């Protein structure tokens, strides 16, 4: 109950700040529309209003405050406008409609999951190699760290161009970008987890004459599970970001990234914000699903989360 109250309090505070921010952000657009409809605004011309600060415009035209939350193309849409757009594009549209966020979400989700699987598999394999090979630890880990310093927004077009040049199109280029973002958290978390058993536990296995494989399956892997799931939660969110970024340079017509792109082309800020919220909701759902799987797996293994 206390947690729910705290969450609701934070949401209420964000909503109040959001509604308040709409006033200075949208006031110029509202006054321009009011001037075109014949209303008297202060200052009277758009040129004079451009030189005036938003707070001064609000103070001089208080009658227009009520309209800043209902503009068709506001600079900053009000929360209820985003909520209505979300409702209309998820509940009231057919799943096959290209205006449905669920349709666009499933396109992005498919690339996200494929990239996440590739990135997670690659990350786990690299982590196992790094833990068991001093050479890989010295050679691969620094490059893995350096790879994450390259801005994905610059790398994504190059990946897509290279893959297109060799005939790879469709979902795979986006999945590769998703895998690029998701593999690093998995590598770091898995390496930390595989190295988490202390020296006494490793020595105990040696006294039992356990092989390297037995030490991995019976000690290192179970000990790494909490670290792995923490990394997977970061990785799935990063993978979703990668899929959305991968849709931007291709001029995709489907996917949440395509929805963002179309919104920016036509100045539909409400559409942009609703796509952003859809992406956030999708990421939260994926992380929550991983949390459920984590609890089940750790409970099955007898590990306390």
From TrEMBL:
Name by which UniProt lists this protein: ABC transporter permease protein
Subcellular location(s) of the protein: Cell membrane
CDD domains for the chain: TM_PBP2
Pfam families: BPD_transp_1
KW Transmembrane (keyword) present: yes
Family: Belongs to the binding-protein-dependent transport system permease family.
UniProt-listed PROSITE patterns: ABC_TM1
Domain ABC transmembrane type-1: 101-294
Mode of membrane association: Multi-pass membrane protein
Major subcellular location class: membrane
